[in-house]
Amino acid sequence: MSKLFFSIAGLGGVTGLGGGAYLLHLNSRSVTEKKTIKDRLQKAGFQILNDSESQHWKTLKDAYNAAKGEESKVFAKSNSDIDEGKLRELCNSVLEKGEEDASYSKAKRWCVVPTTVSDYLGKLGRRALSTATSGEVDKTQWEDLASKYENSQDKIASLSSLGSDKKWESLRKECGTLGAKKNYEDNFDSNLASSQTWCSVSVS
C-alpha cells in the first residue's frame, strides 16, 4: 500500500480517538450539569428549608396535613397525618429530582422557607405598593393602576369591578389581601401574577 494510504488511515485513527474522547467529555458534562428541583427553586429565589428551622417545618406540616386528601397539592394523598420528620424526608427526596419533574410545584409549596406574595415580588424586580389603609402612600401609582383596571381583560380573579367611588382604594384593599398570601396556600402563582400587574411597580 502507498504511504498516502497509511497517512490517511493514521489520521482516521487519531480522529476516531479524538472523537471518542470528545463524546466522553460531553457525556461527563451532561452528568455533572444535571439540574434538580432544588437548583431550580434556588435560581427562582426561594430558600430551601434546612433541618434546623423547626418553626417553619411545623407551620408547613400543619398546612400539609390540612391538604393531605388532595392529590394535586401533596406529595402523596393520604388519610393519615404526617410529622415534621416525614415531611423533611419527602422534601429531601423530591428536591433531588430533575428540574422539570412534575413535583416542582409541590416542592415550591412545602420545601422552602415560607414567603408572601408581597415579599416575593422583590425577587422579580418589583416593589409592592403600600397597602396601609391610613394615609395615602403611593396614591399616584394606585390611581394610575386603577384607571387601567376597569377596561382590562386581565383582572384579579376576586375583583371584577372597583366600584364607583375611590377606585384606587378598592384596588389597594384587594392587593393587601393578595400580598399576604403565602407560597404554601392555594393559588400562589396566580395571586403573584395579579400582584405583579396590579399591586406593584418596577424598581428599575
Order of helices and strands: HHHHHHEHHHE
Please tell me what the overall shape is. elongated
Poorly predicted segments: 2-17
Could you describe the largest sheet, including whether it forms a barrel? 2 strands, antiparallel
Number of helical elements: 9
Structural class: mainly alpha
Helix fraction? 40-55%
Radius of gyration: 26 Å
How many domains would you count in the coordinates? 2
Mean pLDDT: 89
What's the number of extended β-strand segments?
Answer: 2
| Strand portion | under 5%
Main sheet: strand order: 1-2
Distance between the termini: 72 Å
What does this structure look like?
The chain is an all-alpha fold and 204 residues long. It has two domains: 37-110, no CATH class; 117-202, no CATH class. The protein has nine helices and two strands. A two-stranded antiparallel ribbon has the order 1-2. Helix 7 (139-149) crosses helix 8 and helix 8 packs antiparallel against helix 9 (188-198). The chain starts with a helix and ends with a strand. The model is unreliable at 2-17 (pLDDT under 50).
